[in-house]
Amino acid sequence: MRPPPNLSDDQIEVWQQAxxxxxxxxxxxxxxxxxxxxxxxxxxxNLYPTAEAxxxxxxxxxxxxxxxxxxxxCKEAIAVDPxxxxxxxxxxxxLMELGQSQEAIDWFRQAIAAPYYExxxxxxxxxxxxxxxxxxxxxxxxxxxxALDLCPDYHQAKAAWQLLQAKLN
Length: 169
Fold this sequence. Notes:
Elements: H1 9-30, H2 34-47, H3 51-63, H4 67-80, H5 85-97, H6 101-113, H7 121-133, H8 137-150, H9 155-168
């Protein structure tokens, strides 16, 4: 989680406490303790709302198939920091889970364009999934390939790309 710019000394201390709760929430999430992760992310947000804490809380909701709640958390994340790409990608992924793949496209495009996003390969892969689902295989291959260009070890993207390439031959 990156520190917000221009924090006063008092705010730095509160943000650091929020960061600690976020990190504890992430550990609980990795251990599969969804209730504890939600509690800890919530405490982090109450101390100092961050796009990361909202997005990761949404991620926990998604594990419970609470996609509307997950989307709401990602929208909160975007309200806190519109440059945070993860939230856009996650909304798109949750919309796909809800069977709304066409609506997801714009969210994936916004994730790709977001200034603060270290895993840009995911929205490219997800766009590939949407295009493949809609029978637009050339576009799907292009997006899977872009995901692989960005993350050469992305096995899901490689498998999807190879499968579609084979179907075209």
